[in-house]
Design goal:
Two copies of one chain form a homodimer. By secondary structure, chain A is mainly alpha-helical. Chain A has eight helices and no strands. Chain B binds a DNA duplex through helix 2 and helix 3.
Chain lengths: ~180, ~180
DNA sequence: TGCGTAGCGGAACGACGCTCCGTATTGTTG
DNA sequence: CAACAATACGGAGCGTCGTTCCGCTACGCA
């Protein structure tokens, strides 16, 4: 029982990293040597499977927030570095962009996880950078989290699209007061 | 023949605007009172159908570029207003974000149309704003076009996500020199 | 040894984009 | 005006998804 759950998890992270995050559920089941029924009893939805696979990395990313806030030269630098970390995570999982697609695609569980774990962290970083006077723009943490996600998530290793550069562009915008 | 093509086009724009851009092709065929075969002979791909439906609006958007450059107070303002126009277009077509998803989803024709028509326009606007000294950041027109697209395209009328604000954030970033 | 139940596999379902082929509808000839 | 191409058409069918469902296996306890 738990034996199967673990082998499914192992298979899933193996399959997701080789065939991409969009790999068919069947492929994961096959790789785990398990039937569809078994897989779906443990993970009722594709999204639940992804949550299980990525939870650890998301936690790691979340934990890095307060840490960076302490160790960095300024709140803004911390914010910047955290966003880079977050962007890196999403970039390596091509196709994880669906997370922000709202109701669609049955990724609600993963969506929720992002909101629960990452939103508070970003909120804290943003607030700190705002009180230190380094951020003047008028944005909510949610908007920023989603914006960076959108910017990054569909990156398909396009040599003409430098993700880091674009993300930094957005961050640079934070320094300036809102335009009408 | 051409009679059918027109009714398919009409049906498509009707269906896309009511059921969303992701509406099944079958639905368009039914709405047009036409079989799948007929639809696919005129528009061999979902993407071709969308190209046909949106070409006019895309052309309009493209034509607005040089126009804005003349009439606006400064190149940067023109750039800003054009980007707003572009963003508005994408926003009203929920789900058109797939366009930037690269190879996927068989949207290549639409992708190409964006590149052909909009990229040169944005390039001109960006170049003008750069020579006027209002843009210091190091971005290619392609990156900017895609970034704005990504930012906007999955908007699902989320009251917590103000598209215009986010786009302006990115534009504000353009003013500043690149950070390392 | 028998039986109840929990855990399992994989066929099957509905939705999708797209293809294919038999049929209707033209329009051109003798 | 009739016979016959050539063209246009409709919709069933295919392969791929995510997900569901059901018959079967294998184990625990009497």
């Amino acid at each position: 029982m738990a034996r199967n759950e673990q082998s499914i998890l192992d298979a899933a992270s193996r399959v997701f990293s080789t065939s991409g995050v969009d790999a068919p559920v069947r492929e994961v089941a096959d790789a785990a040597g398990v039937g569809m029924g078994t897989l779906y009893r443990h993970f009722p939805t594709r999204s639940d499977l992804m949550v299980a696979v990525y939870r650890h990395q998301i936690d790691e990313c979340a934990d890095a927030g307060p840490q960076l806030l302490e160790s960095s030269a300024s709140p803004f630098v911390a914010l910047q570095e955290w966003v880079h970390k977050y962007a890196d995570f999403l970039t390596t999982k091509h196709g994880l962009g669906n997370v922000w697609q709202g109701d669609a695609a049955g990724l609600s569980a993963l969506h929720q996880l992002f909101l629960d774990r990452l939103l508070p962290v970003l909120a804290e970083l943003l607030e700190a950078a705002r009180t230190s006077g380094e951020v003047a723009a008028d944005v909510t943490p949610y908007e920023l989290l989603r914006a960076v996600g959108d910017l990054v998530a569909w990156n398909v290793n396009d040599p003409n699209y430098d993700v880091l550069r674009i993300v930094n562009l957005l961050l640079a915008g934070l320094r300036q007061p809102p335009t009408t």
